[in-house]
Structures are given as structure tokens and as C-alpha cells.
Amino acid sequence: MNLAWVAAVLFVLLASAGLAAAERPHQPLPIGELVSLSNSAATSEEVIQRVKGAATTYALRGSDFAKLKAAGVPDAVLDYLQQSLIDHLDLLTRYWTLGGGLGGCSFCYPQPVDLAAMRSGYPSVSSTPPTRYMASKPPGTPDWVPYPPSRLGGTRLSVSQIVELANNGTSQEQLIQRIRGAYLEHVIGSAAPPAAIRSHPIAGLSGAQLARLNAQGVPEAVLDALQGQFLAAFIEAQRLHYLNWGKGSKR
Questions:
Q1: Element spanning 9, H or E
Q2: Which of 13, 22, 175, 250 makes a 20 to 30 Å CA pair with 196?
Q3: What phi and psi, each to the nearest 5 degrees, are found at residue 58?
């Protein structure tokens, strides 16, 4: 057999395999694998690196953090998941405000999650496709985030007050209404510590904190409302921030 012909055939096969791999869409890490990895011998940092390596961000409700905590996911991983969501929403808000976008890459957006079925991602979980343009909010914003927020200048409400109200007989429905009409204090976290240099704001409401709130008596539905209002207020704060880029005082 002609060696040159064999070499040519092998080259074509290898080139085709490389092209197929390049065209194969990058797969996000399923939420079930994250939970399984968290319950293995892997450290928190190894779990975080696995999520980073898969370039995956999850659109987690407030109650999801309590459920993940109960499923064995460490606090450090919960905090990373919340910060990753904040980082992505910051980027999506910047593109939306300034006229950019992530295009048709559904993998590039926060992945919807259904922990009851231990599923995540498009189209495994029913959710508005992130590639569908919506003038009212950044593409990829989770459906359950009440953006634009109805009010930003309402009664101030802190996380500690929410815990107190939840344990003093305030009904779940009343507490949810309080949250949706309130300005949440000390949770936007738009500034980094003085010694830190960051390209994204820091999440003022961490994943581990949301999990602890459930242990302190805050119902899951209230946690969902808290996370939704927090993210809505965060998006609005960042929208205003990017609208005012370059419009500071001039000397």
C-alpha cells in the first residue's frame, strides 16, 4: 500500500476529528455532578475549579442554596456559585445597557436549575431562552427575578430584620410583600475591600448566608423573594452605573 496515500488518509481523518471537536458545543456542568462531586473526597477548591473549568454559572434561587447545603455542598462552594451569578449578571447588564451582547451562545448565560429533579441547563429546565431579545431586562436574567423592580426607594429592610419578622409570627405572604416593596440594606456590595482589585462587584448576600437564613427560620419562599429582589436591585444599580460611565465631574 502506498505510504503517501495512507498518510494523506490519516491526515484527513485527524483533521475531520479536530473540526468535529471544535464544532461540538461546550457542555455546562450538570448540577447533579456538582452535588456528587461535593460529596466525594474532593475539596471545596477542587469543586470550584471543576465548575470554573466547565465555565458554568447557575441561576440559583434563594432556597436553592439551602437545598444544596442540605445535599452536602460546602459553604465555600455556595459562596462561589452566588458570586459567579453576580459576575454574570453584571456582565449581562453592561452589555444590555451599552448595546452589546453574548450572541446565540446559550451556554454563556446562567443555567436554569431544577433541584427537585436535579436538572440544569437549557432546554432541560423550562425557562425563557436567553437568546430571545427582551427590551425590559438583560437577556439571560432568570424569569423569577422581578426586574425592573417596582420600587427602589421603599422602606428599608435588612436581612436581620427579615429573620426577626420570620420568627415573630409574620406570615410568609406578608413577609414576601415586605421584601418586594423594600429597599434591601447592605446587600448590593458594589465596592470591593480597600486592598482588593476586582473587575466585578462583590455579592453582598452570599450563598452560605442564604443557606443559614433557612436554618434560622426563614421559609424557602421568602428566601426566593429575597434573592429575586436582591438581584433585581443589583441589576438596576449596575444599569445606572453603566449609564453614567464617563460622565463624572470634569476639571
A1: helix 3-23
A2: 250
A3: -110, 140
Torsion of CA 123, 128, 131, 135, to 10 degrees: 180
Residues 6 or more apart whose Cβ sits within 8 Å of residue 69: 75, 78, 208, 211, 214
Q: For the chain, give every domain's residue range.
A: 31-138+145-243
Residues 174-211 have pLDDT tens digits of: 999 999 988 888 776 544 444 444 566 888 999 999 99
Q: What nine digits make up the cell of 196?
A: 482588593
Cα–Cα dist 109/107, whole Å: 6
Q: How many residues does the chain have?
A: 251
Nearest to 207 by CA among 85, 32, 41: 85
Q: What is the pLDDT of residues 56-105, one digit of tens each?
A: 999 999 999 999 999 999 999 999 999 999 999 999 999 999 988 777 78
